[in-house]
UniProtKB/TrEMBL annotation:
Database matches in Pfam families: NUDIX
Keywords: Hydrolase
GO molecular function: dihydroneopterin triphosphate pyrophosphohydrolase activity
Cofactor: Mg(2+)
Its EC number(s): 3.6.1.67
Designated name of the protein: Dihydroneopterin triphosphate diphosphatase
Length: 147
C-alpha cells in the first residue's frame, strides 16, 4: 500500500481536452516539470472507464462536465504502454503494462481551469500540433493529433 491507498491495477484513462479550434489543454505534473499531459488517472475498483474519465476531469481541472452539460466522448479505443519504472511501486505486483482508455471533451473557450496542486503545477492551451509536440507520452501525442 502507498499512503494507505490500495495498489493500482494497470488500467487508466486519458482525456484530451480541446476547444472548437482544436487548441488543447496540457497540464504539468508536480513530480516532473518536463511532464506535460492531458488528464489521466487510474480506474478505481468498481469504476467503469467513462466514470473515471468524468471523475479525473473534475479532480485534475475542476471541470464538472455533467454540471456544465458537456459530454466526454468515448473513443472506444485503448492504448498500451510500459509503466515507468519509477512508478511501478504504485501498481499491483508484476504490473509492467498499463491499458489506457481514450476519451476527449470539447470545452467552451472561456472554461475555467482549477488545478489540484498535489498533482499539477501549471496548465497551458496550445495549438493541436504544439500540444502534441509538448506532450510527454507518445500515446498522448497520438491522441491529440487524432482529434
Amino acid at each position: 500500500m502507498l499512503n494507505n491507498q490500495p495498489l493500482r491495477k494497470p488500467f487508466s484513462v486519458l482525456v484530451v481536452i480541446y476547444k472548437k479550434n482544436k487548441d488543447c489543454l496540457l497540464i504539468q505534473r508536480t513530480d516532473d516539470a518536463n511532464f506535460w499531459q492531458s488528464v489521466t488517472g487510474g480506474i478505481d475498483e468498481g469504476e467503469t472507464p467513462i466514470v473515471t474519465a468524468y471523475r479525473e476531469l473534475l479532480e485534475e481541472t475542476g471541470i464538472d462536465a455533467r454540471a456544465l452539460g458537456l459530454t466526454i466522448r468515448d473513443h472506444q479505443k485503448t492504448n498500451q504502454y510500459t509503466i515507468r519504472e519509477s512508478w511501478r511501486h504504485r501498481y499491483q505486483a508484476n504490473a509492467l503494462i498499463n491499458t489506457e482508455y481514450v476519451f476527449s471533451i470539447c470545452v467552451p473557450d472561456d472554461i475555467a481551469i482549477t488545478l489540484d496542486p498535489n498533482e499539477h503545477t501549471d496548465f497551458i492551451w496550445l495549438t493541436q500540433q504544439q500540444a502534441a509536440d509538448k506532450a510527454w507520452s507518445p500515446s498522448n501525442r497520438d491522441e491529440i493529433l487524432a482529434l
